Prior knowledge:
Chain A is mainly β. In chain A, 0% of the residues lie in helices and 57% in strands. Chain B is built from no helices and 11 strands.
Amino acid sequence: DQQVKQNSPSLSVQEGRISILNCDYTNSMFDYFLWYKKYPAEGPTFLISISSIKDKNEDGRFTVFLNKSAKHLSLHIVPSQPGDSAVYFCAALEGDGGATNKLIFGTGTLLAVQP
Amino acid sequence: DSGVTQTPKHLITATGQRVTLRCSPRSGDLSVYWYQQSLDQGLQFLIQYYNGEERAKGNILERFSAQQFPDLHSELNLSSLELGDSALYFCASSLSPGRGGTQYFGPGTRLLVL
């Protein structure tokens, strides 16, 4: 059963416009979320994270929004650049609050930014 | 460059064989994680080690085992390989094992079982 879902396998946007990538989760115990970007033949690269005590976190062109009641988060990229073209993974941290934790990943969204 | 290194980059082997994948975490990171990315399953957590001790297990097959050594590098051993084990295997490490400990990923090892 997929606990973290990214329902859009792909997204295409024009350079300079906003990219919005969506993610839903089913486990209400999740309280920390991360976004990773992945280029072909490379490992996932950490982008931005958010704790459930916040509803928004910003880092440069990247902003993550969290709606706990809807169990939904989204990543906004403004403005989008061709170099942002990659697969974006949403992940939830599952752990015991101590030394045990693992990432539960969504299936990813392929973002293509057209020049 | 995340600072996490993995060797080898590519591995081609036959069914029934055994292979070892190696991971060196970022300097100072005590936690190491292994993930498998296959076409039909996406990125799946396999196992976590913290300072030499196993801390969490995912859907790791009994044919697979891992360990973390005193110098903190880790090895993932895959035995009795099957065609379905063909996948990308990623190692990640983090400074803090708890919440907020961002995991940084290595470039992966691509395993092809023929």
